[in-house]
């Protein structure tokens, strides 16, 4: 089960954190992984790590807010591999700030990376996937998505994007269901990555978060990657339009 041999998978924001864990997990299951992020060198390091473990991967610089760059990278992937089977929309920014202080530029920047970037990559991926009538798109949302009765201070812009990702996922699943493409979201809880370094550095914030989690700990990037592998696999063939929360029980409290 969960064999991805022969599949081509592209992961955005894959130079560190969850994206890196996703890339490694997909490669471990046999996929050839296109590791993309804003820093090519860092992507190449991830490729080296994958290759050292016997996997296959290539690196590309890709800023997901730039449509021209998205087209260039997808064109190169199709030239090299002739197809794309799996897209993991993972690249994201989380820059918490009280709503009263949030500037228009800060609002827009978060929307551009976390929402527009997902749309552009998913749309281009789907155009390739329709050619083989098969594909998997996995959009990383969050428990901070505003639809589960839990709000997060300083997250107006971030939550707007993560809720938007779920709405977008459902619509894409409807529109692309007959094209053989499944589109699902994953809603991570608090996961130990560089994104939440400021929370880890503040014992009070850390305690507030882990106290709320029934498992009393943050999640590991690999625990999200396992869900990505599942949704990317043939075994998840009848799952589309869903959001899978992987949060150590946070939303159950
Ligand atoms: N860590 C958490 O607790 C948590 C919880 C829920 C959801 N998420 C989401 O998970 C995803 C991965 O986050 P992470 O925790 O691994 O954070 P991270 O900061 O470690 O990784 C995010 C990656 O996105 C990349 N990125 C940022 N802007 C980009 C752009 N314009 N183009 C391409 N890449 C860009 C960064 O360079 C970075 O490598 C994000 O979408 C995040 O919102 C994280």
Describe the structure.
This protein has 253 residues and is of the alpha/beta class. The chain has a single domain, classed as Rossmann fold, CATH 3.40.50. It contains eight helices and seven strands, in the order βαβαβαβαβαβαααβ. It has helices spanning 17-28, 40-52, 67-81, 104-132, 156-176, 197-200, 203-212, 221-232; strands at residues 8-11, 32-37, 56-61, 86-89, 135-140, 181-188, 243-246. A seven-stranded parallel β-sheet has the order 3-2-1-4-5-6-7, with helices on both faces. Helix 1 (17-28) links the parallel strand 1 and strand 2 (32-37). The longest helix has 29 residues, at 104-132. Bound molecules: nicotinamide-adenine-dinucleotide. Nicotinamide-adenine-dinucleotide is lined by residues 12-13, 15-19, 37-38, 62-65, 90-94, 113, 140, 142, 188, 190-191, 193-196.
């Amino acid at each position: 089960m969960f064999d991805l041999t022969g599949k081509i998978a592209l992961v955005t924001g894959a130079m560190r954190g969850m994206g890196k864990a996703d890339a490694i997990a997909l490669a471990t299951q046999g996929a050839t992984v296109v590791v993309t992020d804003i820093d090519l060198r860092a992507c190449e390091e991830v490729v080296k790590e994958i290759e050292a473990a016997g996997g296959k991967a290539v690196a590309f610089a890709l800023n997901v807010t730039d449509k021209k760059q998205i087209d260039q990278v997808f064109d190169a992937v199709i030239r090299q591999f002739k197809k794309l089977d799996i897209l993991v929309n993972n690249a994201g920014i989380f820059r918490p700030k009280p709503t009263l202080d949030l500037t228009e530029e800060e609002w827009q920047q978060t929307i551009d990376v976390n929402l527009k970037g997902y749309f552009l990559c998913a749309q281009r991926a789907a155009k390739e996937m329709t050619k083989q009538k098969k594909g998997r798109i996995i959009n990383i949302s969050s428990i901070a998505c505003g639809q589960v009765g839990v709000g997060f201070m300083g997250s107006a812009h971030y939550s707007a994007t993560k809720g938007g990702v779920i709405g977008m996922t459902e619509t894409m699943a409807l529109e692309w269901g007959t094209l053989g493409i499944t589109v699902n979201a994953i809603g991570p809880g608090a996961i130990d990555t560089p994104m939440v370094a400021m929370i880890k550095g503040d014992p009070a914030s850390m305690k507030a978060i882990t106290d709320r989690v029934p498992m009393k700990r943050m999640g590991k990037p690999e625990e999200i990657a396992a869900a990505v592998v599942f949704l990317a696999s043939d075994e998840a063939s009848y799952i589309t339009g869903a959001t899978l929360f992987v949060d150590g029980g946070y939303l159950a409290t």
